[in-house]
Design brief:
The complex is a heterodimer of chains A (302) and B (346). By secondary structure, chain A is of the alpha/beta class. Chain A folds into two domains: 11-126, Elongation Factor Tu (Ef-tu), domain 3; 132-297, Nucleotide-binding domain of ferredoxin-NADP reductase (FNR) module (Rossmann fold), CATH 3.40.50. Chain A has helices spanning 59-64, 106-113, 149-161, 187-192, 216-220, 238-251, 283-286, 292-297; strands at 35-44, 49-56, 72-77, 81-86, 96-102, 119-126, 139-145, 169-175, 196-202, 212-213, 230-235, 258-261, 277-278, 281-282, 289-291. In chain A, the strands form three sheets. Chain A has a seven-stranded mixed β-sheet with strand order 10-9-8-7-11-12-15, sandwiched between helices. In chain A, strands 4-3-6-1-2-5 form a six-stranded antiparallel β-sheet. Chain A has a two-stranded antiparallel sheet with strand order 13-14. The relative contact order of chain A is 0.12. In chain B, helix 6 (217-223) packs antiparallel against helix 9. Chain B contains eleven helices and twelve strands. Chain B has helices at 8-21, 101-114, 122-129, 176-182, 192-206, 217-223, 228-236, 242-246, 293-312, 322-326, 333-343; strands at residues 2-7, 23-32, 38-45, 70-79, 82-86, 94-99, 131-136, 160-164, 168-173, 188-189, 253-259, 265-272. Chain B starts with a strand and ends with a helix. The chains are: A alpha/beta (302), B alpha+beta (346).
Chain lengths: 302, 346
């Protein structure tokens, strides 16, 4: 007898789904493909963190891969697992990304053991970005606490590369102790740029530390803030950005002009697995970048 | 919508045709519970006699045929210091029959998340489009509140939908696929009497529901976010995750990587997870965003009745009360919703 039902082969389907504006990976057949990438350099930052410079191997994929500051990728080590990592490099480099990774779990531990040349998988980029285009002609406060400098580095590079689009630029960074400072080899470079103000502080100094000691909010005392024309990007643990944002609110900056990046567990990056839900908002789709007013309205966000 | 009628013997011919040509999954009795009531599952069947269309509810939903408990997202072949990724999707067609309106509505809700325009899931869509669905009308099941969440009727999401009129079925046809299959047997055009009998049958079903007060539930969820109701029910919760396993719409999952014993092959495996399990929202470094039982229990309700509502203007819950039936601690949505409705109202 003839077949009553005919098989449907999804791989024969044209790319019918429209891509999202900021993400060209939302096409039906490609959502779970990884870009095979090579670790080209590994840079030791602290005891716990390393910077991985990664390049997508396929020429076409590399050409098509672009991201905006604040977005993240899913990094797969086949056989071990897949984790969300924020992109830490300049958005102007095509198909080349830097990932600052702290040794914390199974996948990050194996990554810390990886050598140059190791092939890993990259999916993405995913999530929302810092709306730098809106900040044209304004002052920018780039504030990071601890590991928060990793996601903040993308907007820092973007601002430096497009310096003439902005007025005053301040980079404020704080950690618990000097040994935890990330990218300390870069401070001098940033500081030497004539029109960028960099301030670094630690909560607890040690004998070799000659810089400032105090909380990140103390650094704000030294900054003249013009609230009507200032935007802020804050990356760090919730307790830190809560203090910073409250302080900036007192200075008169509107809450929808402060942007923070949230951290959640993620298994898909595409609004499916629900692991990153805050109340009912997917951090991977509506975030990780939120304005502070939205964060205040999210149940259980901070 | 096109309608036909099908005599019971002709219906049997149709099922026999399907059984002869493809895999058929249907409600089948698998035993009895402690009270002597029959237990049913959706299972592959070979014979018409195995199918029990008179069933009240299946213990598991039909979800597992679209979101299997465990599924390979991709496989990986390791060679020397390199690897290659391979992805395969399900291609074989099959028939899933005997679905009640709640289970079909559940699939429509899953479609919104998994087959919408934001990152559609090829794994899900492949299974969905390869499944021929025959639904059937039924009387309300014990504890079910599908009418209160608008899941007691369906107008799409199936190929054929049957309403039992005694000696014949009234058949709604929702796809050309469904039409072609139905034309293989002797389906009759509907008469005025058929329409009358069908509408009466629907009325009889509709009159049997006991309404549950769902009024203003999304706002209520926000207002009662810190409520004692959650603490009271949270204390009972065993965090076992059974509720989400049997739920027709819970789609949360986790992804793990596995490697074969010889180390030559690996797989990225998706496994359904539960928001009630302890480590659901735990992040690197040890912080757990939902460390308490009550917040995890609350979260599931919040997602179903508040979060999904916000995005899609309908609740995710279809009111089947499978989670209530399976819960070892007696936690069930009708009672929780009643508690929420009455907590701050005298």
């Amino acid at each position: 007898m003839t077949e009553l039902l005919h098989p449907y082969d999804i791989t024969q389907e044209a790319d019918i789904m429209q891509p999202l504006d900021f993400n060209r990976r939302s096409r039906l057949k490609h959502v779970d493909r990884t870009f095979k990438s090579e670790i080209i350099n590994i840079i030791r930052l602290t005891e716990m963190e390393k910077l991985f410079q990664v390049r997508i191997l396929d020429d076409t994929a590399r050409e098509r891969f672009s991201f905006r500051p604040g977005q993240f990728v899913m990094v797969e080590v086949p056989g071990y697992g897949e984790i969300p990592i924020s992109i830490s490099s300049s958005p102007s480099h095509k198909g080349f990304i830097e990932l600052c990774i702290r040794k914390a779990g199974l996948v990050t531990t194996i990554l810390h053991k990886a050598r140059r040349g190791a092939p890993i998988g990259i999916r993405g980029p995913f999530g929302t970005h810092f709306p730098i285009e809106k900040m044209r002609g304004c002052n920018i406060l780039l504030i990071a606490g601890g590991l928060g400098l990793a996601p903040l580095r993308a907007p820092i590079f973007h601002v430096i590369e497009n310096r003439s689009n902005f007025k005053d630029v301040h980079i404020l960074y704080g950690t618990r102790q000097p040994s935890m400072l990330l990218f300390n080899y870069q401070y001098e470079e940033w500081d030497r740029i004539a029109d960028i103000d960099l301030k670094v502080t630690v909560e607890h100094g040690d004998e070799s530390w000659t810089g400032q000691v105090g909380m990140i909010t103390d650094l704000l005392d030294e900054v003249d803030i013009a609230p009507k024309e200032t935007y802020a990007i804050i990356c760090g643990p919730p307790v830190m950005f809560k203090f910073v944002c409250n302080r900036l609110t007192k200075e008169g900056i509107q809450m929808n002009r402060m942007f923070v990046s949230l951290e959640r567990r993620m298994h898909c990056g595409m609004g499916k697995c629900c692991r990153c839900n805050i109340g009912s908002t997917y951090t991977c789709l509506s975030g990780p970048v939120f304005d502070y007013w939205t964060v205040l309205n999210l149940k259980e966000a901070i | 919508m096109l309608f036909k009628t099908l005599s019971k013997p002709e219906f049997r011919n149709l099922v026999d045709l399907l059984l002869g040509s493809t895999e058929v999954i249907a409600p089948k009795q698998i035993g009895v519970n402690n009270d002597g009531k029959p237990l049913h599952h959706y299972l592959p069947v070979q014979e018409f006699e195995e199918i029990d269309l008179e069933y009240e509810i299946t213990e598991y939903s039909a979800k597992s045929y679209f979101l299997p408990f465990r599924e390979n997202l991709s496989s990986c072949r390791f060679e020397d210091d390199d690897w290659t990724q391979e992805i395969h999707y399900r291609l074989q067609p099959r028939v899933l029959m005997g679905l009640h309106s709640c289970d079909i509505n559940a699939l429509l809700k899953l479609d919104k998340v998994l087959a919408g325009d934001r990152f559609p899931s090829p794994y899900f869509i492949s299974r969905r489009r390869n499944t021929f669905i025959i639904g059937i009308d039924h009387y309300p099941c014990e504890g079910g509140f599908c009418q209160s969440v608008g899941a007691d009727v369906v107008t799409h999401g199936f190929d054929l939908y049957l309403t039992d009129l005694g000696d014949r079925y009234f058949v709604a046809i929702n796809s050309d696929h469904g039409y072609n299959v139905l034309m293989q047997v002797d389906a009759k055009d509907t008469t005025g009497q058929d329409n009358k009998d069908y509408l009466e049958a629907r009325q009889r079903i509709a009159s049997k529901f006991e309404p549950l007060n769902m009024h203003n539930l999304p706002n209520l969820m926000d207002i009662e976010f810190e409520s004692e109701v959650w603490k009271r029910w949270g204390k009972k919760c065993l965090s076992c995750g059974s509720c989400t396993m049997v739920c027709p719409t819970c789609y949360c999952y986790g992804v793990d990587e596995r490697v074969s014993m010889d180390g030559r092959e690996g797989a990225k495996v998706k496994q359904l997870y539960s928001c009630n399990l302890l480590d659901f929202a735990a992040v690197a470094g040890g912080h757990n965003f939902r460390a308490d039982r009550e917040t995890r229990l609350k979260y599931r309700y919040y997602h179903q009745h508040r979060g999904f509502m916000e995005t899609y203007e309908e609740p995710l819950c279809v009111g089947c009360n499978r989670c209530g039936r399976v819960c070892l601690a007696g936690i069930n949505p009708p009672e929780i919703i009643r508690d929420l409705q009455t907590e701050d109202q005298v």
